[in-house]
Request: fold
Amino acid sequence: MTHQHKPMPYMALLAFAMTGFICIMTETIPAGLLPEISHDMAIPLSTAGQWVTAYALGSLFAAIPLTIATRTWSRRSVLVTTVLGFILFNTLTALSSDLLLTFTARFLAGASAGLAWSLLAGYARRIVEPAQQGKAMAIAMVGTPIALSAGVPLGTWLGQVLGWRLTFGVMSVLSVVLIAWIMLCVPNVAGQSKQVNLQFGKVLNIKGVKPVLAVVLTWMLAHNILYIYIAPFVEPANLGNKVDVILMVFGLASLVGIFITGKLIDKHLRVTVLLSLFAFCVVSLILGIFITSPSVIVIGTAIWGLTFGGAATLLNTALADAAGEWADIAISLTVVSWNSAISLGGIVGGLLLHLSGVSSLPYMLVGLLFTSFLIVKLNASYAFPRSREQAH
Reply:
């Protein structure tokens, strides 16, 4: 057992978690406040719903170019720049009454998030000892399940009490606090030297990178089909008026999932990924068969949350292990895969709903998750190695 020289930099890692929390909150708050936004801006609900799409597209298109543009900057400067982006674009969203300006602000907020996501995982790994990297990633990623379980319901409630504009204002205030926190607690790390020739094709061709990206796409597509269409999905079980409770069950189970992942990831990454995919696949099948049973829906949602909680940490760690010194670049490719899955989740789920009804969703999930499971199973050398020593 190697002696760990450095204590875990918890305050720095929690600043990363807070950055992730603000990314997710900024992305998802409109979903909870569609009626308020629609009424205030005098636009249809479906148009208000595209606020989430504009943000996802910003992340999708900007992650790679912004990662390239800022790769020589010190890591703390990049982090502060992304948070400044949130202050600016959330404030713009809060003040704007022009739809085009609002969509532009949402797109650019998404771009800030795309850069943040491609930075956080690599940064968290670089400020700790190799033996602590998995645990550090789990702490840095905890903002996501907290935002999904507590932040989104809280933001929705806040928007209903104070109005949606003030909710975006609150996000800007939190971002100002976060900048002070980063300056005080986060150690600076150098960027890449200008000499390093950056070729995405090269990074993509590193053994192990493509299989991980394929798992990100299939696993997250399955997740998003269910998450985005959770309201119609729980209708057959007469839980339509309990969507907030279902999402809270999901979020709380996610928190437990990320805690368990933090314990297992450094020694058992491969097994944890396989178990998560297998459990989600089986649960999807059971949800499909017992779609009208409220108790099955609630228990199934808890197991789904449990399998999802550690997903971002597991997949980013697997990718960073595979890509080695190119981890930041590889993780910016994950941001593309991840946001493609969000956009596709809305489209594929919507088509299934329209063509064959809500009962077809779980069977689509089973197909995607089985594919994901097979990819992991067949890639035991580079992408999801049997022991992580192989990866280093």
About this structure: The longest helix spans residues 243-289. The chain has a mean pLDDT of 88. DSSP finds 17 helices and no strands in the chain. Residues 1-197 form a domain with the Growth Hormone; Chain: A; fold (CATH 1.20.1250.20).
